[in-house]
Specification:
alpha+beta, six-stranded antiparallel β-sheet, five-stranded antiparallel β-sheet, 32% helix
Length: 781
């Protein structure tokens, strides 16, 4: 007999009557020495009482060489004719290998799922954890083909493919899988390793063993880190409150929540300062929501609507405490909240079936509560836990900062835009020199509103000043600086300075502003400006630029080009001169003044853009307003990166029938002749009613020019929207009003002119000065 089949026969008296070869190999006693002896003589220790009664157990025998041999014995009674035991057949198992026993225990009691398959993917053995995972005892699986024990799914097919690969190649395989198991109510992450079991002699693979480690905790930790990393990249891509909320929803659904919503306090979406946190019931406005199912059937509140959250609801609790609030199915507040939501379902239909966990997290940034983020799980079997709450607070914190940034940007943009619109001319003043049209487009970029401006300023002698400028930077500071410069230009224009001198004074102002603000660099308050003066009597346009793009000119013959002018340094550089350029324009020419936002962009060539501008000006247009729109459409990209100001001016001319000029001999006796000439011209124009006042004005201004000025002296009358009287001489001394005493012979002339006319003033010219006075024309009969 083999060692594994050691057998001995013992009669009812305990005497050995039979002895096998296997028994000899185990104990060393041959049959002739064992048969006939009492069993007790072969024992080294008395057998356990329980083993004798059970006819099985571990017994210590004495080997022939004197050593002790521990054997596991099993006795089977041999019945006699009377049915009573006449003896026993005792079988013995070979001595157990302790290392093998420990290995078996390690396999069976391992904390991970372990299994052995044959090369045809049939179960050979499973440990305790594997049986719990499969949900059935080992006996139910032994010998079965693997596909018969699992559902037909992709992860099962992948598992089977790896088993076959190891059996065929004899090489181990390691991979990760995210799947469930028959006995598990949720999916788990598994780290699986398979290796071949080979014959010690032939080296052939005769089985495949595997170990599957449940790495769900590590998997979810990695997922949380990945979600935070994704949040940093995907939330806050635009400075728009609603879009930021939508980005948060896109991140949460469906991986983190089956349904998620973002509700904000109303003031966040406006420009007002935040009010105090409301009391028990809180009113929030739905900004965004999303669902893992089509149509967001779980939403009881539509986007854009407000909703009242009672104090017991998770969102209200989260807002009041400033911390994440988790509620689970079965809790009273959760049941009340879901019931209240379900009551709003169409026709009372319950559309939140399966909702079992909710997480509400306040959106707080810089110590300010903006709203709340709510997440609901339905299809996902896991309730929200402590780790989920920590992750939710981190995501909400990042999103809240982005929402607050967007809110601040919107508020500053609105303020800057309101400030800028209040400073820009709303209705351009009436004047006859040019017909104007204008457009101002604020930037939609993240940089904010810039400091572009334009203006049309009536000057004496029917002339008009055209201004366009651009302040460095964006936002409220740029708008405020623009307001300062716009006011300064109007003030200097009222003094009637030539364009180059006006820019010199404006440059000094910018330098002083930068110094007063304590800035080390003047460029921080720098600006560009183009100032042009058009005279409809002479038809001449005089202009000077401070770092500004040159104007474009459209002639009546349909040709368009840029006007070559000296650009000059930007305002704020200081110490450099500005040069004036003068050109003569025909009636009907169109001058286009613009800021650099029209032609400059990171992705555009300036020369190409200016060529497009000139081509756009030649397009047929019924009105200047139509031409403005056509130019912007043709030249601007879809999303301009900077503010754009565009000012178009079509020139008009005052003909010879509207202007009368006389050279006056510097003799006081010629004053009467000047009065007579002016009266006759008014009669020719049909303005006899204005003759009396005009005679007084001409008499006073010509007398002053002859008495206090220097020759040559010239008188000019202009019939425009007003009647303008101008007297020029070669002296640069400007007149001024003074109070005459009772017995003074002079000093009342200019006071009389100021009282009788609509306005008066003086301006410096290249050869002296000009004193002018305007009076309204009598209404037509």
């Amino acid at each position: 007999m083999e060692q594994a089949s050691a057998v001995a026969i013992v009669d009812a008296r305990g005497i050995v009557t039979g002895w096998s070869e296997g028994a000899r190999q185990l104990t060393g006693y041959p049959a002739e020495q064992a048969v006939g002896r009492a069993v007790r003589e072969l024992l080294a220790e008395d057998p356990p009482t329980g083993a004798v009664a059970a006819l099985t157990g571990t017994v210590v025998l004495r080997h022939r060489d004197g050593s002790a041999v521990t054997l596991r014995l099993r006795a089977c009674p041999v019945l006699g004719a009377d049915g009573q035991p006449a003896g026993y057949t005792v079988t013995a198992e070979p001595p157990e290998d302790r290392a093998a026993a420990l290995a078996g225990q390690a396999f069976q009691q391992a904390s991970m799922s372990m299994s052995v398959f044959d090369t045809r993917q049939h179960y050979l053995r499973l440990n305790d954890v594997a049986c719990r995972v499969m949900g059935v005892p080992e006996e139910a699986l032994l010998g079965r083909h693997f596909p018969e024990s699992v559902e037909d799914a992709e992860h099962s097919r992948g598992f089977l493919a790896n088993l076959r690969q190891v059996a065929e190649t004899g090489l181990p395989v390691r991979y990760e899988s995210f799947t469930g198991a028959p006995a598990l109510n949720r999916e788990h992450a598994w780290s699986i390793e398979m290796w071949p079991l080979k014959d010690a002699v032939s080296g052939e693979t005769n089985a495949v063993a595997l170990a599957a480690f449940d790495s769900s905790e590590q998997y979810w930790a990695r997922r949380r880190l990945a979600l935070l990393n994704e949040a940093a990249a995907s939330i806050g891509t635009s400075l728009d409150v609603v879009r930021t909320a939508e980005e948060l929803i896109e991140l949460l659904v469906p991986g983190y929540a089956d349904f998620a919503s973002v509700d904000l306090l109303d003031w966040v979406l406006g420009t007002d300062e935040r009010p105090a946190l409301p009391g028990a019931d809180i009113v929030l406005r739905r900004v965004a929501h999303g669902s893992g199912t089509d149509g967001t059937p779980e939403a009881a509140v539509h986007v854009g609507e407000t909703d009242v959250y009672p104090s017991f609801t998770p969102p209200a609790k989260a807002l009041r405490t400033g911390r994440a609030v988790v509620n689970q199915a079965g809790e009273p507040d959760f049941v009340r909240w879901v019931a209240e939501r379900n009551a709003r379902a169409p026709e009372g239909r319950r559309h939140r079936t399966g909702a079992h966990s909710v997480l509400a997290v306040p959106l707080r940034a810089r110590g300010t509560t903006l709203g709340v983020m709510a997440c609901v799980r339905m299809g996902n079997p896991d309730d929200y836990g402590e780790d989920d709450a920590v992750l939710g607070e981190e995501l909400a914190s990042r999103a809240a900062v982005c929402i607050d940034n967007a809110r601040r940007f919107a508020r500053e943009r609105t303020t800057a835009l309101a400030l800028q619109h209040s400073l820009l001319p709303r209705g351009l003043p009436g004047q006859a020199a040019v017909e104007v049209a204008h457009r101002y487009l604020p930037s939609g970029s993240l940089a904010g509103i810039g400091g572009d401006w334009f203006d049309v300023i009536p000057l004496s002698g029917s002339r008009v000043a055209l201004v366009v400028g651009d302040v460095v930077g964006h936002g409220i500071p740029s708008s405020a600086t623009m307001g300062r410069l716009c006011t300064a230009v109007r003030t200097l224009a009222d003094v009637d300075l030539p364009p180059d001198e006006l820019l010199t004074h404006l440059d000094d102002l910018v330098t002083h502003l930068a110094s007063d603000d304590g800035g080390d660099e003047v460029a921080e308050l720098g600006a560009t400006c183009l100032y042009a003066v058009y005279d409809p009597v002479s038809g001449r346009l005089t202009m000077a630029a401070a770092g500004h793009p040159p104007p474009a000119l459209l002639l009546p013959d349909g040709t368009a080009s840029l006007v070559p002018i000296a650009a000059g340094p930007p305002l704020g550089v200081g110490g450099l001169p500005f040069e004036a350029t003068e050109i003569e324009l025909p009636e009907g020419a169109v001058v286009a003044l613009y800021t650099d936002g029209l032609i400059e962009d990171r992705d555009r060539d300036v020369d190409h853009a200016t060529a497009e501008l000139c081509r756009a000006l030649t397009a047929p247009a019924d009105t200047l307003d139509t031409l403005c729109d056509a130019v912007l459409k043709a030249v601007l990209p879809e999303e301009p990166s900077d503010d754009v100001a565009l000012l178009l001016a079509r020139t008009r001319a005052l003909g010879a029938d509207q202007v009368a000029t006389w050279d006056i001999t510097p003799d006081p006796e010629r004053v009467a002749a000047a009065r007579q000439a002016a009266t006759e011209q008014l009669t020719a124009w049909g303005l006899d009613e204005a003759a009396f006042v005009t005679e007084l004005v001409v008499s006073e201004l010509v007398t002053n020019a002859i008495r206090y000025g220097a020759p040559p002296v010239q008188l000019r009358l202009i019939r425009d929207r007003t009647l303008i009287c101008e007297v020029s001489d070669a002296s640069s001394t400007s007149p001024h009003l003074r109070r005459a005493h009772a017995f003074d012979e002079g000093g009342r002339g200019l006071l009389l002119v100021a009282q009788l006319t609509q306005r008066w003033g003086s301006r410096q010219t290249g050869s002296g000065k000009t004193i002018w006075a305007e009076q309204p024309l009598p209404p037509p009969l």
